[in-house]
## 1
Amino acid sequence: MKKISTLFKKDPNDLGRVINEVNPENQWVFDGEGIPTRKYDGSACAIINGELYKRYDVKKGRKVPDGAIECQKADVISGHHPHWVKCEREDKSNKYHFEAFDKLRDPEDGTYELCGEKVQGNPENIEGHELIKHGAKVLHGLINPITFENVREYLEKVDIEGIVFHHKSDRKMCKIRKTDFGIRR
């Protein structure tokens, strides 16, 4: 799972914020080709061929772990280089990953968010731990039309991390988070 771009352009003076200008690579959202889904605040995971993986960012100066699966090439600016690393049951750092994985009735290959009591301070208020499939919660007709002001206003009102837009016919995605507008959750 590669890092996805932000719906609006980043503020050149504060890369943690966005400005009221469409990121050109995401024009498809404004052309009606985007399906808005809830972005959960947790830790990215994947199920690949029925096996559980967690995301591992190989930052500058770090070594790529044996058997890691590259998600994308290293970002030349930030140095981030995301990979999938297989979770091993005997590794205590994977305890909550497997607690959530073992709850799945029919583990389907794809990407997920690990959320729960011991993940990121549990902003999703989940008891125990869960794997939530990316794109599972569609936000039907809540922001219409999609504009900078309407998206910001929507995110001010709801208790979610943000929105991930999925293209209707291909694999393109982009995101927008509360923090992009300086909104605290």
## 2
Amino acid sequence: MINMTSKRKWNIFAHIVLIIFSLIILLPLIWTLRTSLAPEVIAYQSKIVFAPTLENYYDLFNRNKFGRHIVNSLIVAISSTFLTILIAAPGAYAVVRYRPGGSITQFLILGADLLPPIVVAIPLFVLFRSLNLVNTLHGLILSYLAFNIPFILWMLMGYFEGIPKDLEEAALIDGANRLQSFIRVIFPLAAPGIMAGAVLGFIICWNEFIFALVLSGGKTSTIPVALAALQTSAGVRIGNVSAGIIIAIFPIIIMGLSMQRYLVKGLTFGAIK
């Protein structure tokens, strides 16, 4: 009885600690939501009780044309993620199965992802300007491949290494070629990892700022650039910025909840041999 009572008290204490830390983590998000619903005068104050309003959201879409930036972000993030998976999945499979260049190839792939974005952004701007790709969505999509492909390729290599070669060899014995065995055997087994990579790649593209700032214009800018531009002669419109942040994280929350099953499988599959 004493042990059961002590265990129950310990569980209650552990839950209280977890709730406190969860509230600390969620406090910035909760305060951002509060600020987005506050009138302009109260937004800069620390009042908690006030009459909420949707004025900031209305102003964001009507005065700042925020809907256009949401569409731009969706087009760029979805297209870039699709192209990244289309290139990175076969690339990771080829590196794992055929080992081209030995271990140096894997090091070069990781090294390409470790470069600071600004180092790549300036040469890309010069190149894209000569090709008339600056201030275009397809130019921004192509630029995102520069940092998304190495990251996703490196990530998927661990998943393909965890798939036994015996399954692939069995498919080859049954008459399938390399492409058929990849599509029908390897790809379905690595689907959780590929989905996890797609989600992470989408988040990276959705939140990217440096490339979007350098390569986009007023009509092609994405959400991060649009939020940074919410400044007036009187300063930053904190209410509009908070409303934009809440709108920006909403698709990520929806995607995280809908893909949670694939994320859990994908993030653990590559670590199990």
## 3
Amino acid sequence: MRTLSLVWLILALSVSAAHAGDLPLTPNLPIPDFQNRPQDAGPYDFDAPPRGMFRSITTAEGFEEEMGFRRTHEIVPVRPTEMFPATTAAVFIVFQLHQHYQAFQVFGRGFPDGIPHLDPGTAVTEDAMYIALEDESGYLKLFPPTGGWTPGRYKVLIYAGEEINEMNLMGMMRFTIVN
């Protein structure tokens, strides 16, 4: 039995050595040949909906929780739209995520986008959701500011990480409040 194991080991090593000798060597290639080429990658647009770890992201009137095919709770948008009445109780941002290997938070901070008499630099609404390791979806619930929604366009900056800072900005969602 021991001899048979030794024969298999020698055979495996000789096959591995034969395949290793077949690998092409590329001597003296410049370092840029091993890096991402600039012509293959476009610039990231922070003024657009987030990409990367987000499979999808949309504004909606609500959400439902469904059982996913892996027996996980999956959050799906209800009546996706970018137009909301001024009487809406909340605007939802519903998203699906790619696989991730660490828990984190998703933040949404809403600002008026060109609405007269409202400071575009002052946040009027925000929310955060903790994303556990097993979560594949989530939502943000943006309540109206004190006094209700002012008709006009709003932008929501989406961040991912442990806190809000300019380094973890992922992108921007927009919605419109109408009378």
## 4
Amino acid sequence: MDRLELARLVGGSVAALEHRDSVDYAFDPQRVSSAATLAVMEPTGRPVLVEAAQPTDFMAALAGAVASGDEVFLCDANWGEAERAQLNGLLQSEIINRKSEISEGWLMIPTGGTGGRLRFARHDEDTIAAAVRGFARHFGITRVNAAGALPLHHVSGLMAWMRCALTSGEYRPLGWKQLEAGEMSVLPAKPDGWFFSLVPTQLERLLRRPATVEWLRGFRTILLGGGPAWPDLLKKAADAQLPLSLSYGMTETAAMVTALQPHEFLLGRRDSGAALPHAAVEILPDGTVRVGGYSVFHGYWPERRPERWHDTDDLGRLDEARHLHILGRRDEVIITGGEKVNPLEVEAVLLATGEFDDVAVVGVPHPEWGSEVVAVHPADRAPDMAVVEKAFAGLAAFKRPKRLVALPDWPRGEAGKLNRGALAELAACRVQRGG
């Protein structure tokens, strides 16, 4: 596939929205780019920024941007001043690549931001197409139909659409607020069924309504990513017989590189599944997850990298079936009194008590131990401490949280991903105030 073919496929996918019967969004065919029919234009050497709050506006803008021939930057229309300043700084501090260098890694997908350092991972028609081919082969289909409630500037939302566009399937953008309120769209029957991508916090909210649970059962596969899901949430999903696929991937790999099949989930597996055909997963001697394959990015803009392997910040292991188990992040390991604490291990113990709807274990500065293990939970529910203390008995003393901190508002990105660094700062402030 070349950029011209991608432009035509993306433009054609946008044009198809004109003909669908949907109440989710009004569609103006005048917004559709000519990318479905025209050749890729001569690049100008200037970056094209794609940002729109409404999905169909974003899709139309991206269709035109692909046909522009220039470097394309996907942006969040809701970015604040901090993210805008970082974006402007990136574009002004570096010379935009010359026209002759735009052929590879021209699609910039944001990663970070919302309290972290904003970066753009370089992708193009080759990395996107490789990820789509691997996805289709893994799930044994030739045409992908998907409903999307994740933002399109985010890799998970973008790839849900790209899988449809590149396989001549149908993509339906859905409004998250409407879904959360119980307003479900009626999706027409398809021979290959429908896929739906969610993050754990979204799934938890949708499971609160019986009618929404019934609607979720109608999907061929519900892809769950964007962060670890807690045991109680997965139990509820299994009890509801939802066709869940736990997956692992990131912006740098054009979304998922491993995925659990729904029938494996319903049989009791709770790992991130096996590698998709286009990808390879290895565990380095220190436990770091390494990912390789044709969907691996070309580097963080403005740099380029020739390697097709990416060493992640995640720790994991491969079992006898070569299914991936994520054990946490290297940069989130808490060092307290010289001992290492994996937050996910402690969180699993706390969530298993049933006393927490959500919980996050973080390290806050301590003058004697270096870091103090603290468990943060939502402020709208007080746990039974007798139950919690009993659960602590199963943990080594240095792993047990020294404090439980109740916080009403948790810092999350638009896709629902928890910003642990920002949460740790909030917890530290509360601890300092004696909360």
